[in-house]
């Protein structure tokens, strides 16, 4: 008799023996909403999700870190501005900039925190239409060579949910030109720019490619039967899983 998983039970789709020891930290701030979703995505990819609290003084022995979405500290001052000064963020900044180049992924509010921490350039402001938006969003992979995108291909289009109010990515023209020239635009909106981001930018990386931030939510598209569909009704519900398998590929080295 086939065993049917309980509702809410995460069943790893890429659980290989050499991935079992990989540990991905998931940070929670006051106001974080999507930490459990990110942890579930990590488990579905085959790794161990390690909960990290914003006030922790040490990262421990994690192999990568995810800063998930939400409204940290209620987005007071600016989205992500207070979280930037959390004790754990100083450890994440140091580890990301170290010779080890710890992989760090910032999703939505996490992206905002990464810009406030100067791990990524530019800034996030209110959507150009000044409204909260929630929709399935098509993205084009512009750089499949980062720690979080190696399981995708350049030019591949994926669909993942998007939900934000302060999602408009801005930077001066010099910075934008540098991002383009250096291949650091990792994702671009396709078909519709939902928030007015400059040059349709949905996600960027640092120069080393270990730090990636994006506004849409790949952790909401990791499980068959629970995710977006394409316009023709074809299932696209696991299009976001590649983020989480990519970093495991990076951690263990080589191809899976």
Features:
nine-stranded mixed beta sheet; single chain; 5 helices; 256 residues; alpha/beta; two-stranded antiparallel sheet; globular; 20% helix; disordered N terminus
Brief overview:
The chain has helices spanning 35-45, 87-97, 109-116, 173-181, 241-252; strands at 23-28, 48-53, 64-67, 104-107, 123-125, 133-141, 157-164, 168-170, 185-189, 201-205, 211-214.
Q: Element order, helices and strands?
A: EHEEHEHEEEEHEEEH
Strand content: 15-25%
Our count of helices gives 5
The helix fraction, in percent, is: 10-25%
Category from helices, strands and their pairing: alpha/beta
Unreliable stretches (pLDDT < 50, length at least 5) are: 1-7
Main sheet summary:
9 strands, mixed
- What distance separates the N and C termini? 30 Å
What this model shows, in words?
The chain is built from five helices and eleven strands. It is 20% helix and 22% strand. The two termini are 30 Å apart. The chain is an alpha/beta fold and 256 residues long. The N terminus is likely disordered. Helix 1 packs across helix 5. The longest helix is centred in the last third of the chain and has 12 residues. Strand 3, helix 2 and strand 4 form a beta-alpha-beta unit. It is globular and about 40 Å long. The strands form two sheets. The protein has a nine-stranded mixed beta sheet, sandwiched between helices.
